[in-house]
User: What shape does this take?
Amino acid sequence: MRRTAGLLLTLPLLLAVACSSSPKAAGPATPSTASAAPTVPAPVSEASPMPTLSGGGFGSKATITIPEGQQPSGQFVVNTVIDGERSTVNKGDWVTVNYTAKDWTTGKDLPSSYDPNGKPQLYQAGSGQLVPALDQSVIGKKVGSRLLVVAPPAAAFGEQGSGQLGVNKGDTVVFVLDIMESLPQDSTLTGNMTQPAATLPQVKDNGKAPVTITIPTGQAPPTDLQQAVLIKGEGKQVKSGQTLVVQYTGVLWSNGQQFDASWTHGGAQAVQIGTGSVIEGWDKGLVGQNVGSRVLLVVPPALGYKDQAQGAVPANSTLVFVIDILEAV
Assistant: This one.
C-alpha cells in the first residue's frame, strides 16, 4: 500500500525505455510521449553475423564476442541458447531476468546484473516498461532459458541512446538473458493457513480472489503493529530495498470494509519495501519475512495514513492487510 492511493509502483529500471525530459521522468521508467516510438521489427531466431558466447552457463555472467570487423544485420534476433524446462512466460507475467550486455557498435561491455552491485530486472513482460530487447524477447520462452538477443536501435535504446549505460544513439546492443522466474498476475499462495490469535482478525482463503478478513467483534484495535504469519514460506528472506511481488487485501478495522486489493488492479503488484515507498506498517512488517509467506498485518494509524484521509480510508484508521509475498528481488 503506497503512501498515496493504490499500490502501483514506478520501478527505477536500468534497462527502461528512454524517457522524455518532463519533471516526472527523473527515474527512467516510462516511454516518451513526445514522439512516436520506432517500429520494432519482428524477431528472428538467427541472422548472420552472430555474436558468440563463452564463460559461464545459465545463471552466471556470459562473455560476449562480437564478430571482428562485421556490421550487425539490422535484424532483431532472439536466439534460444538454452531451452528451459519450466513454465512459459506470458504477456503480463512478472518475470525476473539476469542479463549480460555489450554494445556491438562500440565493443564496450555494459553493466550486468551479475556485476558486484548488479541485481536482476523484475518487470511485467510485454508491458512496455523496458526496451523491447527485454520486454518482448521473453514472451513465449520458458523459465530456465538463456537467450542471445541482438537488438537493433528500434529494439534497444533508439535514437536517444542511454546516458546511464553509455549507449550512444543508434547503437546495436547484444544481450544475454537468463530467465530466472515468472509469475502470472493471478499467482497466489496455497497451503494450510494457521489462524492468528482470537483477538486478531480471522482470514478465509478465496483462491484467486481477495481473502475474506473478519474483524473480531467488540475488540478494540491494537495500538501497536501486529503481525501473524498465516503461511510460512521457505524462500529467501525479504531485505530492505528489495522489490516485492505481492497479492494483498486491505480492510478497515472499524467496519471490515475492503478498501483496496491487488485483484482490483489486475492481480499481483510490485512494491519496493523498506525505503518509505509504502506505509511504515508495511516497511516494518514485511522486511525479514520469507518469500512464500502469507502475512497478516494490523497497522495502527501512526504507521498508516495517520490523520490524513486517503480515498475510502478515513483519517486515523487502523488498517488490516493480508499479504502474499510471491517474489523478492
In short: The mean pLDDT is 90. The CA atoms of residues 59 and 129 lie 23 Å apart.
